[in-house]
Amino acid sequence: MVFRNFRFVAIFRILLLTATIFLFFYTLTLEYFITPFLIALIIIFQIYLIFKYIDKTNRDLASFLESIRFSEFTRSFKIEGMGSSFDELNKAFNDVINDFQKVRSEKEEQYHYFQSLVKNIDVSIITYQRNGKVDMVNSSFKKLFQINNLNNINELKIISTELVDTLLNFEPGKSCLVKVQEEDDILQLVISGTEFKILDKSIILVTIKNIQSVLEDQETESWQKLIRVLTHEIMNSITPISSITSTLDLMFKDAKNNDSPPDKESIEEVHLAIKTINKRSNGLLHFVNTYRNLTKIPKPNFRIAKVKEVFDDINLLVKEEIKSNNVKYLVSYEPESIEFHADTKLIEQVLINLIKNAIHALEGRKNPTISLKSHFNKRGRVTIQVTDNGQGILKEVLDKIFIPFFTTKPKGSGIGLSLSKQIMRLHGGSITANSEIDDLPNGKQGSTTFTLTF
């Protein structure tokens, strides 16, 4: 509508100018002198008005575009003296400016919101470029490293060279642990983040979390669990030894006060007591040697191997025991060519231990079955699972099965699963257990699955 009115007014003025020019030449033929002069002035005035009319529109349009270009949304447009044909143009300009102003205001509100969020979050955040130039650090970062300002990553070298190297060579999507030793404090830092682009600039956003207190709490808890197990085992051996030696001491005192030699029955009691002490001492010695073995796992000799080859070797080793216990043994791998990077001897040791535990859990069960399978999990990691249809493991027991020397078997040492967990840690993987106990009223059988993830 605006441009249609503009075109109509422009055409009208041109036609009027054309008619005036025609009238000018017509008056010249009549040999008038003053009239052509006056008409000429009118022509000049009309040309001036047309130029002003068009130039005003161009200047307002240029001003509007500059406002958009330089994000100057505070000005308003009011076209006066140009007729009603420019009322809509005037309104359109102001509406667009108001819309841009509203969008800009919303973006500024979001910017301030995210700025406040980043500044006040309790996780240290830093954004920087590959050359080390820092774009932003939040308050938690400044508080963690006790700094007021940071312009470049290299300025952190006074705190830790390892930290600077980690940040400058950071690989997006990965997490790493960096230990920073300060004069009177130790920082255990977990570093993770991502990389993105703004225009042509590559930005790295990193979050840093100090987990020193968490590690200390977990370490204390682990030591407490281990000490409880150690003291339990040691007390089981020391208490009877102490009791027997006290009895022997009384017997020898009686023998010293009695002039007659000890009878045969007394000698047999002493002999039995000494045998008991020897047995308990050997048991304690065996316990200590077992603990020493737990701390002496060989360094893995990694190689690329097919899971199928490992399963085939294990099948030969457990075949007879599986057969003698009438256990149904199922093996599967998907795909058949699945490979992993591991020390196959150590992994075989872990799997054999899990299969033997499963055989013991199936004693007295109907249709005992053990399933050994391998596949890629949803994160694309190689996974091996050992499943049995035993009665299951209670939840309170399941939380303790990886603690050294904890066992529910009468003749168990309690180090098999602990060794397995350490072996998996050396492989950069994990071992987890999931179990469902028997639910007989509903006819549901129990099952236990141990999962090795590489």
Can you walk me through this structure?
The protein has four domains: 2-107, no CATH class; 121-210, Beta-Lactamase; 215-294, Orthogonal Bundle (Helix Hairpins); 303-453, 2-Layer Sandwich (Heat Shock Protein 90). Helices cover 53% and strands 18% of the residues. It has eleven helices and twelve strands. The chain has helices at 2-29, 34-69, 87-120, 139-145, 161-168, 212-257, 264-294, 307-324, 344-361, 395-398, 416-426; strands at 124-128, 134-137, 175-181, 186-198, 201-210, 303-306, 328-334, 339-342, 369-376, 382-388, 430-436, 447-453. Strands 2-1-5-4-3 form a five-stranded antiparallel β-sheet, sandwiched between helices.
